[in-house]
Amino acid sequence: MNMKADTLKKRKLIAALVMLAVGVILLYRSLQTSRPALKASITVPTAGPASKVQLRSEHRYIAVLLKPTLDPRLRLDLLAESEDVVYNGAGRNIFFEHQDDIPQPVTSVRLPEKQPEAPPAPPPLPPPPPVDLKAWGWANHGGGDKTVFLAQGDNGFVAHEGDIVARRYKVVKIGPNSVEIEDLLSNNRQTIPVAF
Length: 196
Fold this sequence. Notes:
Blueprint: H1 2-41, E1 52-56, E2 61-65, H2 76-83, E3 134-140, E4 146-152, E5 155-160, E6 164-165, E7 169-174, E8 178-183, E9 188-193
Antiparallel strand pairs: 1-2, 3-4, 4-5, 6-7, 7-8, 8-9
């Protein structure tokens, strides 16, 4: 067991050293290929007669010795020269090109007065539902008390004036040819003919 563990440790160590060597080689190659690109991207400013440019190609270094130009003092002479500069554009002025085409505002325009809108008329009420009773006849028992025979579907009713039929209809008046019925749910009176 101990021998296998030592062999495994040696293999891991060898693999780590190989990976380290490959990493060092790749790093060296990337640095070698990036130096010419760095050299090509550097531009040497021309600063005047006091500047010195020394190029040592054998060491691939660029040394630029310039007169220090960063002066923290304010140069009033340069500011005074820039104050007298007037911009005279060679092209057109896009802000004032169509100034004549802009209509002038009218000050005395009177808008028509708005008439108040009348509220819309309410929709007409739907007609009341028809009374679904049929009168089959009537009877008079001599004393003036009239009885009417009514039908609603398969149901038949015998009613006197003032009686309520089918929990909804009140018999108001019994005439010789018609019966006046009031619908208690919709407060509507209708006259139905008597069929003999």
